[in-house]
Amino acid sequence: MNRTVLKAITKKDIKDIFRSKTLLLTIILIPVIFSLIIPAGVVSTILYFDFELDTGTQKMLDKFLLKVGNEEILAFSLKEQLVYLFVNYMMVSLFLLIPVITASTIAANSLVGEKERKTLESLLFAPITVKELFISKILSSFIPAFSVSLISFILSGIIINGLSYSTFKELIFPSMNWIVLVLLLLPMVLILTILLNVLISSRVKTYQEATNLGGIIVLPVLGILIGQVSGLFFLGLGLMVILSTIILIINLVLLRQIAKYNDRHLLFEKQI
């Protein structure tokens, strides 16, 4: 494998991201919304505004607490319980939207973007294998998307701990749920999102088509969020490990599929 060529294409693609106003706006706006605005708004509302729960809402909260199975949270006040549940469970699925949306936007532009910039033909006939081309596109999507996710994680911690420290008298972020999310589940979800979008981008003719099809990947994350809000399940440590294992297997299958994709003429024809 030609690492020099891989590095050159990856570096070029990352530079192209910062030249695109659409991609750059997505990379900035999505993390700001999901790692700053929403956490700050929800935590501030819970901690600094007085409210009472009606009987139905209180029963739902009690059901949530039983599902969590964390004895520590039972000793918290109502506001502390609500903040703890939001930060360590609800926000986890919200946070997953950052890498999914960011990676989808970048990866969808990977090959079809080359066509629209009229650089695909020269790239396909360059001294590089199709496998190396795909790997470079995967890397150029993974590096910025994962970097944005890590920065968002740090910013979320600063906001959450800054707002809640006076109430909890300790740092509540990150919990073990968040550590497992960032180190295990998030990379797996990110790779899956990129692999699917790169494959989609290699088969469609316009960026709009690629983003429309790639947007479907957001639906499972929304399903996780709805499942948690409804109390159907909580994205705890065990479930995150199970999901990570399943997604790892899917990723390996997709990688094998990409490894077999070695006909540059077929790839070129699909982009005409």
Automatic annotation (TrEMBL):
Keyword annotations from UniProtKB, A to Z: Membrane, Transmembrane, Transmembrane helix
Membrane spanning residue stretches: 21-49, 86-112, 133-158, 178-198, 210-227, 233-255
GO terms, molecular function: ABC-type transporter activity
CC per GO annotation: plasma membrane
Name of protein: ABC transporter permease
Organism: Ureibacillus yapensis
